[in-house]
Design goal:
The complex is a heterodimer of chains A (451) and B (530). Chain A is α/β, with parallel strands linked by helices and 451 residues long. Chain A is built from 13 helices and 14 strands. Chain A has an 8-stranded mixed β-sheet, with helices on both faces. Chain A has a 5-stranded mixed β-sheet with strand order 10-14-13-11-12. Chain A starts with 20 loop residues before the first helix and ends in an 8-residue tail after the last strand. In chain A, 46% of the residues are buried. The N terminus of chain A is likely disordered. At the A-B interface, helix 1, helix 3, helix 10, helix 11 and strand 9 of A face helix 2, helix 3, helix 4, helix 16 and helix 22 of B.
Amino acid sequence: MEVDNVVSTVREPLNWSGRWNHIQKVLERSGPFAHPDFEPSPDILGFLLNNCKLLVIGAGGLGCELLKNLTLTGFRHIDVIDMDTIDLSNLNRQFLFRQNDIGKAKATVASDFINNRVKGAEVVPHFCKIQDYDASFYKQFHIVVCGLDSIVARRWINGMLISLLEYDEDGNLDQTSVIPMVDGGTEGFKGNARIILPGLSACMECTLDLYPPQVNFPMCTIAHTPRQPEHCVEYVKVFGWEKEKPFGDAPIDGDNPEHIKWICGSACERAEQFGIQGVTYRLTQGVIKRIIPAVASTNAVIAAACSTEVFKLASSCGAPMNNYMVFNDADGVYTYTFEAEKSETCVACSQKPKTIHFKPTSQLRELIEFLCQDSMLQMKSPGITTTVNGNSKTLYMKSIPSIERATRPNLSKSLADLGLSSGQELIVADVTTPNSLIFILKLSDQRSAET
Amino acid sequence: MANKQNKYDRQLRLWGDHGQWCLENSKICLVNVTATGTETLKNLILPGIGSFVIVDKSRVNGEDAGSNFFLDPNAIGESKAKVATNLLLELNPEVKGEYIEEDVANILETNPHFFLSFTVVIACNLYGETLQKLAALFWCNNIPFVTCKSFGFIGYLRLVIPEHCIIESHPDNSHEDLRLDCPFEELCAYADTIDLDAMDKKDHSHTPYVIILYKYLMEWKKAHSGAMPKTWKEKKEFKKLVMSGIRKNADGVPEDEENFDEAVKQVNSALVPSCVPEKVQKIFNDPKCLQLTEESTDFWMMVGGLRQFVSNSENGLLPLRGSLPDMFSDSDKYIKLQNIYQGKAKQDMEAVTGHISQVCTKSGCGNGKISEKDIKRFCRNAHFLRVVRTRSLQSEYESPSKSIMDSLTSDEISDAVWYVLLRAVERFQSTNGRLPGMNNAEWESDVNRLKNCLYDLLKSWDIPGAVEAISDDFLQEMCRCGSSEIHSVASYMGGVTSHEVVKLITAQYIPICNSYIYNGYKSTSVTIDI
């Protein structure tokens, strides 16, 4: 390989002549649409190549595209996290994987492929969950890009990056502690891409109502009045499997074709009882695994939009999107870009503990239901502790069985009976956030509501 | 061997086995290896097109290898088409691919017939006469032609389609075909046997809302000389009437009857008059429908039969769709109702089949018998039929587009302005033999040259004054980018373009008509009918 003297600040044999010509044009030339702080210089490419550290979360449909795009636009030092292994059904879009990679860790195979194809790329794989790492890991990155398939995970990393923010004594944000998060999501022919600047712009929790919870079938429909083939499958999943134990004590494994086949057969029987048509293997699998349809094209579009934003954020050669784009190419091609607004009362990034209102006679279970069902909170299984009479007290914690058993009676006790008073600080932990959140409890006999 | 049903599962849920069949029997041609082009092909190979051919005479150079995932730096100096083909083939063992190391202009001269075997042809970075000639060839042969490129932060896509007929357009939101405004005989017969007042509590609260609305509409019509609720005030009154049907307990408190709540919510939707949608009416009046010949495609034959069905029917409506949305109800009542809708839909479908046969025989185009499956699918989607015809490329270049002219004279500059700039760039290319901003030394002085090209272009459109409406900032940025291909922008366009091609191959979902501009500066985009 020849040494390239166009890229003057990078003395590496990996930069063959002309390699970075395309991006150098926008990095080394000024333009009216660049970021106001932009100063064109060959040093910028040097920064991207040698100093900029990126974290890509997810090595699936979006992740594969992200790794390709980022390494082909000058980024070398990229860490990628994914806890999954490769499945046959991934191959229609996760193009870094081949037939013989099935069963291997996505992060590892993806990084090997990229490092091999894009000379000089140093992608480091992490075959684990994002929750396995703490602040000391995450703070090393300049930008975090997410290609996740879970809202809970997005909220977690959002919370993690917010926890890294530093404020001075006057409460001013130290902007050097801000790690931008670029997030993409896809579903069939729909997708979205957004930029989150923790502490500065709308975060995941600010706009949680953009992600309403999945709607489940009502239980009475499943149990008594099925009408659709999906209801029949759900019945077998919820009741039939437990009752018949077709494979001993084994729980349902959506990836096991024998399980799906059995469920399908059983669902067909139920469907026949009610005169319902349409139970098929594909439908059964879709219900059991909650399958979301996916194609290469949508993943390509959304990952590309995200990558372009990362490129602009890291280099300032263009102004970043402000700040949320939705995409749909089922009917024509439609995009809409808007500014999601930061909430002054956000539980995650406003630095103000949220106040919630209940009657003293309300039961603890009502409070917990509220934390789970409110569209701006959507917690999964919150654990609550507080201080009563100077002593730390666990009110309820579902996640640890022994504590769950011990605190279960509290659910039907009233807040007053539990010794809580108005103005009390409640410390709430949940899978949706790496750090506990503080809520201020206000008790009054007025109708319970929260501001 | 890979199990195709499993491998393609996630996409089969979007376009079905029949859509997949179309993909696997398609032949795609890519003219010119650019990052945009190879990314488009990647997104077609992964879902399993039948085969592809890449046409490109040029050799891999340093900058190509730097921004293209399918060009190897170890292959600098080799044929671009060959290298790209080999790396693309790795993506999917089911797909076949070949390359031709030839200049497309040459093939057009010596063997244009080569191009006619393709399902869709995609061309990147073609300009001037070659572009026009290629487009014209496909236009005459009714082959969809796609041209796309990335230019710095800007992406451009144009579909050139003489005629594309869609049965399964998969509308996102559509009204259900319940016919509550003109209930059919079988529905009336069943609903008339139901006496809501005589029902016990359980039955009453588990009766589907279709029946509830039917009953109360009957009551309303009796009191209003047969008229349906029409004004906002009337609909409000009607909703109150439906609510009044909710049973009350011993204390006079209304019971919890979810089916009635649902009925009230559905009133507005259910009262939308059943009709033949405007777009379908237009298709009925299309010359291709009115003059069927032996050459008519299955689509037009079915449209002809459908048209006859509608004009022969008492209510002047399309065949009943037959689908019933899920609604709160016990299983028995829901299934009974569903069977009634499905039965009527089948009846209508059989009648349509008869009309199709007649219409075919009459026009002498009855060679291939259209399958029952196809007619069934056609009838189920009768309300959503679409025919897409774009302007030819020749027409676009001969007479300026109204939508573009409008965009230049409006107050807000939309992303459509980038189209005008790309046309100016094309002019620059033919005047100067190169693209603006390619050389580091000259890029800034290219701004003025580009401005002159822009002026000439607008002059040819009779709007020379519009050059004032386009800020120099745009010209500056075009030269700054110097026709570079930023990989992420190329990849975005590869995604958008590939899905448009999939729509054309499968004839499902609706393609753009006819151009798309992506603005990577602001992450916005626009579709323009140029």
